[in-house]
Amino acid sequence: MPLVNGGKIVDDSFVKLAVDTPLPESGDILVPAERFLGEAEGLLKRAGKVGVIWPNNRDIAELVPYLGKVAAVALVFPTFRDGRAYSQARLLRERYNYRGELRATGQVLRDQFVFMLRAGFDAFEVKKQADAEAFMQTAKRYSVFYQPTGDGRITALHRRMQLRHSEGVGT
Amino acid sequence: MYAYDEIDRTLVNERVSEFRDQVKRRLSGELTEDEFKILRLQNGVYLQLHAYMFRVAIPYGTLATNQLRALAHVARKYDRGYGHFTTRQNIQFNWIKLAELPDALADLAKVGIHAMQTSGNNMRNVTSDQWAGVAPGEIEDPRIWSELIRQHTTLHPEFSFLPRKFKIAITASDHDRAAIKIHDIGLRLIKNEKSETGFEVLVGGGLGRTPFIAKTIKHFVHGRDILSYIEAILRVYNQYGRRDNIYKARIKILVHELGIEKFSREVEDEWQHIRNSSLQIDDEVIEDIRSRFTYPAYEKLPHMPDELRQAAADPDFEAWRKNSVAPHKVQGYSIVTISLKPTGGPPGDATAEQMDALADLADRYSFGEIRVGHEQNLALPHVAKRDLPALWKALDKLGLATPNVNLITDIIACPGLDYCSLANARSIPIAQELTRRFANHELANLIGRLHINISGCINACGHHHVGHIGILGVEKNGEEVYQITIGGRADENAALGTLIGPGVKFDEVADVVEDIVEAYLALRERPEELFMDTVKRLGVEPFKERVYATR
Ligand code: HEM
Ligand code: SF4
């Protein structure tokens, strides 16, 4: 599955571990939530970055004490119809100020990129190669946004106010 | 009328180009039907019995004449010459080709019309009172707020993949014409003691398999906080709403399972985190939206012009006027409801010719504005009283002057088996038969206000639960059977109807309705006692007896 990060297809440095996969000596690992919470101290001590795979039905608040220490949080879209991870992503970025990698995993298709970017994702395990290649083009599809989110884009409401004020000058 | 600016138009065009690309990928096989389904639904495209059905949004039911002409154009060019206005203030086209859809959308985009979120598990087209802005006694024009919410919910990055569809309706009048109590969120515009604008917020209403009347979650949310409050409700719902069973995924089930107190605590908790965020709306923003609604330059007109006095001699005109003309907040003007329920016709249908002609009439007589109501009728919101006789003559020629608004033949019906792939039974032919049975205007008038609602399956698109008489088609041993309820209503006193007994066969439905009506006429205390009042006073028993005694 190609990984898009920073708008480019990149190699994934993280290795995904299952609940019972033996821990590698070094290297970056992505660990399921359950295992992470159970062994957090040990995991965080070893060499290499640690990321956590957080299921979409588990309260994201449980992860908050560790947010400064994890290098990546991978949220899950079991199907592209299941949008719970959008809320989790916004909470992580906007309420808990998480600044590390926020990765979308599962059924990640190009038609969801804009929503995901706006919710705060910056890394994407894309299901189809063609979608990954179309990332930049798809991400730029929209230039107008109606809602404020943590991505900082100016909303239509505020764009109008700006226009109005600039037009107002000198009249 | 709300005028789209360059910013709104850009978004609509970007949406069209995205959908064009999605259709292309579907046609080339790059997208599977499963992947495409949700994308097309988000653009109002269903796969139906015979063809693709295309559902176009008419936000809060307000149309400009160029927009109505564009709908006529789509009916003519891409469909079979007609469209079907629905209980969601939308219009549906039943015979559209997938490959032509992007072009149809592009044609509509030119006049600021789109099909975004008319379907799918997202926040649907915001609905409101079709008399918004002209109803006497209204708190203020609810469309200002409807538009704010329309914008906020369009392509929302967090709530475009909810557990289920999500509907918001707004009213600003004591008499609720927007049926807010059967919506996921119902908003009632009110003023607090300080005369500030805000909302009573209701949540968890809905029909379908498990009908619920919405409950009040908060008595007053200030206008500046309404977006954050809605966002809080949606966030709680997105996280905790059930996804294991589509029949239980609506917010009404979550509210019911948690209880309104617990649910409202969750929402309150969430809201405290976000209410002071950038979701807070300052007056300037609201004023900006308000400034893009234009209102007619009304003239100073007499309350009772000569034209109207003279026309009163014509009993046909008077029958129509009494039935279809309602008071306007400005003296000398009226609101005219246009019945799309002619005798023998499918409720809600309008031909391309009718739409074009109506657009002309709206230009001449209603400052270029048309409204769509959830009863599947249209309205001209600003007609000078002196023009009523001329307007009536013109409408009559178009077959649009049936004087049956709010009477027994003003039936709400879903498409049923004639078009819908989910249907268990026919709806339209039942409605047609009933309009013939009660075609006599004197009789219908004698009966008075009586709403019949028909759905072809449990999904309740025809709002049968809230019909004064509700008719629900179900399937039993391969046969169409109809369950009859009475006592439902969708207004400020919304209630669900009560089943009167076992289902009846297709051929019997009209007879049963006649029996119910006869029973009512015999039972009512005075002619002013409406059907609903008699049902309230006596319950269903006497009606049940009358219907089943001989069956
Ligand atoms: C012909 C294609 C149609 C299809 C496939 C369709 C599908 C559905 C489905 C599946 C539901 C159930 C939602 C639930 O579980 O709550 C539903 C509900 C509804 N539909 Fe339709 N529908 C169609 C046409 C219409 C039409 C023509 C109208 C208006 C006349 C309409 C208005 C509604 C309304 C108001 C509900 C709401 C029930 C509620 O509040 O829960 N639909 N529809
Ligand atoms: S109520 Fe059933 S039959 Fe009627 S339109 Fe809705 S889904 Fe189809």
From TrEMBL, chain A:
Protein name: DUF934 domain-containing protein
Automatic annotation (TrEMBL), chain B:
Regions annotated as coiled coil: none
Domain Nitrite/Sulfite reductase ferredoxin-like: 52-110, 346-397
Gene3D superfamilies (UniProt xref): Sulfite Reductase Hemoprotein, domain 1, Sulfite Reductase Hemoprotein,Domain 2
UniProt keyword annotation of Iron present: yes
Protein keywords: 4Fe-4S, Heme, Iron, Iron-sulfur, Metal-binding, Oxidoreductase
Pfam families documented for this protein: NIR_SIR, NIR_SIR_ferr
SUPFAM superfamilies: Nitrite and sulphite reductase 4Fe-4S domain-like (SSF56014), Nitrite/Sulfite reductase N-terminal domain-like (SSF55124)
Residues covered by the Nitrite/sulphite reductase 4Fe-4S domain: 119-273, 408-547
GO molecular function: 4 iron, 4 sulfur cluster binding; heme binding; metal ion binding; oxidoreductase activity
PANTHER family assigned to the protein according to its UniProt record, in alphabetical order: BLR3264 PROTEIN, FERREDOXIN--NITRITE REDUCTASE, CHLOROPLASTIC
UniProt protein name: Sulfite reductase
Taxonomy of the source species: Bacteria, Pseudomonadati, Pseudomonadota, Alphaproteobacteria, Hyphomicrobiales
